[in-house]
Design goal:
The complex is a heterodimer of chains A (365) and B (513).
Chain A (H helix, E strand, L loop, with lengths): L5 H27 L3 H12 L3 H26 L7 H18 L5 H30 L3 H23 L22 H7 L14 H18 L1 H11 L1 H6 L4 H28 L10 H11 L4 H24 L5 H16 L1 H19 L1
Helix pairs in contact in A: 1-14, 1-15, 2-13, 3-8, 3-11, 3-12, 3-13, 4-5, 4-6, 4-11, 4-12, 5-6, 5-11, 8-9, 8-11, 8-13, 9-11, 12-13, 12-14, 13-14, 14-15
Chain B lengths: L6 E10 L2 E11 L4 E6 L5 H8 L7 E6 L2 E3 L4 H6 L2 E4 L11 H6 L8 H19 L14 H14 L4 E5 L7 H16 L3 E6 L2 H7 L2 E6 L2 E7 L5 H9 L17 E11 L5 E11 L3 E5 L6 H9 L5 E6 L2 E2 L10 H6 L2 E4 L3 H5 L6 H4 L19 H14 L16 H13 L5 E5 L7 H16 L3 E5 L3 H7 L2 E6 L2 E6 L6 H8 L4 H4 L1
Parallel strand pairs in B: 3-8, 3-9, 6-7, 7-8, 13-18, 13-19, 16-17, 17-18
Antiparallel strand pairs in B: 1-2, 1-4, 4-5, 9-10, 11-12, 11-14, 14-15, 19-20
The chains are: A mainly alpha (365), B alpha/beta (513).
Chain lengths: 365, 513
């Protein structure tokens, strides 16, 4: 019998872990010489109380949903995809090629084309390590990390040579044509007469594509026979073999779906925000995706909530850096604490909770 | 009696989380006796012995050795108290010699050679005293399982054990090796050693023990003198109700061949030939049993048939040849579609996904079949859950809750989930590996009945088991495997354990006659 009711496992454990992480972060902020209460106020004011704050937060959230989902899908097959950074970078390249070299009449078509380009490129970039894992047994963690560096090199090459407009000093591609411009939240709000809402914030329609991706991943993992096979292989290799599931095929497919999702992050950053391909546009989102997947327990709804939290931390952190002497790096520390507590140390929270529920059970008997 | 018991446990209790593994266990083992502890899997035998050997700490209770109260915080303390343990899975270093293994952990001084020299002399003395002859310089991986077990016993004796605990010692032995072991144990008893024998085999208890304690669900239900009891009584005490120890079945009516295997050979990843020229036929309406000591190619045969190991040769199912060239990638689903069902040897590793819920496991391997699909893209989870609940009721799985995770069922109920899945597909051929390993006696009865019922419907059944009793009582024909080869065929009605035992030990057909 499971000792704890499901809701405790799903809701109370992460919340308690989060609370512990917040408590330690507060101690850190005190050590720096600032007030944690004031810091929290500032973070909330800078993200949740202004529409532009929301615009920034949801922009980050969109990235984290894509990478979080990507890591989750791989997790279900017991594969640890650390290559989100690289896959997103190559996805960006796909977006750039699609946007620059195909004359799109309207953004609605451009986003479909760019999504396919991003997914395809990310898929290929994840497919190479997947093939090495499935056929040659090269460990996916090692290969995907190495592919991050290769991707950075490839992106560099394209931006200082192939895609850089003649005469430009900037390692970046030309600006995308205006027909590929994705409506931002500001554009959308203006349609309804709120010109001042979400002013200059980067969040754009790709947020809705991220939400659709959540639903699609849920159907894939929990409803489709393919997702069933992915989960089966992830839980037990010998059992999957017994049931006639082909490990090579499933490893390839799971990783390629993962890579495709990472790649699609680029429609938000590259097509939506910078509107040209630039260096380092991924800003570590591929790695944050690991934390998001861990905290969201590889479930699309969990990933969505965790991505919102990390979006909040990212935007709130920027606010802190702007208005206090708390460095932006502290946010990285806070994120690390959240990862530590929700991932590695969740057992620490779970054990006393289990004991508590056991004593409740005993008392009932 | 005036003598102090060699070991006495008083009111030992131990729980793991909500599971009470041992509850107020009290037991007295007199010196110079063989004391059997019998019980179903999960009855708490191993937990009790682990407490005695210092692996677990009891929540409550006291331990006395020779009348003195002691505490056993770790295995060092157990050894110091004169307790030796022979585990079901040997704890030997494969590429060390016998002598090195015996000394391991009991070396004295910085240099190895003096301890080895001392051990050599000691070993010779022990061998003479207990008739435990072993070549001290043989490498462990070169000697047989029976010999390895002897090394384990010597290890304990070398550490001056007066009380020897053996956990399921015959699980890996041929009947002949088991007889040899029992001779050794009797000899040890003559020399005044105390032996605790943990087993789930009633026959062994009857053959060799002086006293027997029965455990059920963490409690000690009875301690009896072996001469005062019968196997039927013990079975009833173990299960808590009357059980049928024999399988009732009518004579088989075999018809057309369903599975034909010709010249099947298989070489594993380490270039060891695991199957050598296997030829066999299973007809509709019969149970073909394959006997053999574990590790003689039976598992590989099942893997090849199940479609997840490559092999060469010919396998025909219902007359049409199966493609064996598909290597490790496996086409188990295609074979299922042809009417082959497979109850694998290890249900926890292969047959079930322990983290999946019962309903998810109930379609495992058949999840892409039309009947389980709601449409082209998605599985029909609601229908699967409904069907699973009905199946669980028909197969008496307790509790019949399709949303319960597989690991939360007992071994017997897990096996019933696998059987329900495979049998309810109405296959032409059923492969069954170790159908009752780790399954309680009550469930064994049920599982055997189901297998016989399937046979009576005119299906072909290939049964692989290391339990000779099971092979003899279920099969209509028996093949014996040794070292990847079929040693011979016997009719279970007119053969006996001794004859099969010789074949299982690799004594060839002619020599056996």
């Amino acid at each position: 019998m499971d000792i704890m009711p499901r809701w405790v496992d799903i809701i109370i454990v992460p919340l308690l872990s989060l609370f512990l992480a917040a408590f330690l972060s507060a101690l850190l902020i005190i050590a720096i010489g600032e007030s944690p209460i004031a810091a929290l106020n500032l973070m909330i004011e800078g993200t949740l109380l202004r529409s532009a704050g929301w615009g920034y937060m949801l922009y980050y959230t969109t990235n984290f949903i894509f990478t979080g989902l990507a890591v989750s899908v791989a997790f279900h097959a017991a594969l640890f995809n650390i290559g989100g950074e690289g896959q997103a970078m190559i996805g960006g390249l796909g977006v750039a090629l699609v946007c620059l070299f195909i004359p799109w009449p309207h953004w609605t078509l451009a986003i479909v084309g760019a999504s396919i380009g991003a997914a395809l490129f990310g898929m290929i970039w994840a497919g190479l390590p997947a093939y090495l894992q499935a056929k040659r047994g090269s460990h996916i963690v090692i290969t995907t990390i190495m592919f991050n560096f290769i991707a950075a090199g490839v992106l560099n090459f394209f931006l200082v040579d192939v895609l850089k407009p003649k005469g430009s000093m900037d390692p970046a591609s030309a600006n995308f044509p205006s027909t590929t411009h994705l409506p931002t939240f500001q554009d959308l709000a203006s349609l309804f007469g709120f010109e001042k809402a979400f002013r200059s914030a980067p969040a754009n329609v790709s947020f809705f594509i991220a939400l659709l991706a959540c639903i699609a991943v849920w159907y894939l993992i929990w409803r489709s026979p393919l997702g069933y096979e992915i989960r089966a292989l992830g839980k037990s290799g010998p059992a999957a073999r017994y049931a006639g599931v082909r490990p090579v095929k499933i490893i390839m497919i799971a990783m390629m779906i993962s890579g495709a999702l990472c790649g699609m992050m680029a429609i938000n950053t590259t097509q939506g925000e910078s509107e040209r391909l630039i260096l380092n546009f991924t800003e570590g989102a591929g790695f944050i995706g690991i934390a998001v997947a861990l905290m969201g327990r590889s479930h699309p709804l969990g990933v969505l909530l965790a991505a919102l939290l990390f979006g909040f931390l990212y935007q709130g952190g920027a606010e802190l850096a702007l208005w206090t002497k708390i460095p932006r790096e502290l946010i990285v520390v806070i994120q690390a604490l959240v990862i530590l507590f929700t991932g590695a140390l969740s057992l620490m929270v779970r054990a006393p909770l289990e004991r508590f529920f056991m004593s409740v059970q005993k008392a009932k008997e | 009696m005036t003598k102090n018991p060699a070991i006495e446990l008083r009111k030992i209790s131990k729980s793991f989380g909500p599971v009470q593994a041992n509850k107020d266990i009290t037991i007295r083992v007199m010196p110079g006796t063989i004391h059997g502890i019998i019980g179903e899997n999960g009855a708490g035998k191993s937990t009790l012995m682990s407490i005695l050997y210092g692996f677990y700490k009891a929540d409550a209770g006291e331990i006395f050795v020779d009348g003195k109260k002691i505490s056993i915080p770790d295995s060092q303390a157990a050894i110091a108290a004169g307790i030796g343990m022979v585990f079901q899975h040997f704890k030997l270093v494969e590429n060390f010699s016998v002598l090195e293994n015996i000394v391991l952990g009991a070396e004295s001084g910085a240099l190895l050679s003096p301890s080895l020299g001392k051990a050599r002399a000691e070993l010779a003395a022990l061998a003479a005293e207990y008739e435990l002859n072993v070549d001290p310089d043989a490498i462990i991986e070169d000697i047989g399982v029976g010999m390895q077990q002897r090394v384990e016993i010597l290890k304990a004796l070398y550490r001056q054990a007066n009380i020897l605990i053996l956990d399921e010692p015959t699980g890996v032995l041929t009947p002949a090796e088991a007889d040899q072991l029992f001779r050794i144990l009797k000899r040890l008893r003559e020399e005044g050693k105390t032996i605790i024998l943990i087993t789930h085999k009633l026959r062994e208890i009857m053959d060799i023990t002086d006293t027997v304690s029965v455990m059920r669900q963490g409690e000690m239900t009875a301690t009896l003198r072996t001469v005062d009891t019968t196997p039927e009584d013990l079975a009833e005490l173990m299960v808590g109700r009357k059980v049928l120890l024999r399988v009732d079945k009518a004579p088989a009516k075999p018809t057309k061949p369903v599975l034909e295997i010709q010249n099947l050979n298989m070489v594993d990843d380490f270039d060891v030939q695991r199957l050598k020229n296997i030829n066999l036929t299973v007809k509709a309406g019969e149970i073909l049993g394959i006997a053999g000591v574990a590790g003689n190619g039976q598992s590989e045969l099942l893997q090849v048939l199940g479609g997840y190991s490559a092999a060469t040769g010919i396998i025909k199912l219902n007359g049409s040849e199966i493609d064996l060239s598909t290597s490790v990638s496996g086409d188990g689903q295609a074979r299922r579609a042809l009417g082959m069902a497979h109850v694998p040897e290890d249900r926890q590793r292969e047959g079930l996904i322990m983290d999946f819920m019962a309903w998810e496991n109930a379609v495992f391997g058949y999840h892409r079949e039309k009947s389980n699909q709601a449409n082209r893209f998605f599985m029909d989870n609601n229908a699967i859950r409904r069907e699973t609940e009905e199946k669980m009721k028909r197969f008496d799985v307790r509790p019949p809750n399709p949303r319960l995770t597989a690991k939360n069922f007992s071994g017997g109920n897990q096996q019933k989930i696998v059987l329900a899945r495979e049998i309810e597909r109405n296959p032409d051929l059923l492969l069954v590996g170790q159908p009752t390993r780790g399954v309680d006696i009550g469930a064994i009865e049920f599982i055997h009945q189901q297998i016989v019922a399937l046979r009576d419907q005119g299906k072909a059944i290939l049964l692989i088991s290391v339990e000779l009793d099971e092979i003899l009582s279920l099969s209509d024909r028996v093949l014996v495997m040794f070292d990847g080869e079929i040693m011979g065929e016997r009719n279970p009605a007119n053969t006996n354990e001794k004859e099969l035992g010789l074949l299982m030990a690799g004594v060839s057909e002619k020599a056996a006659q």
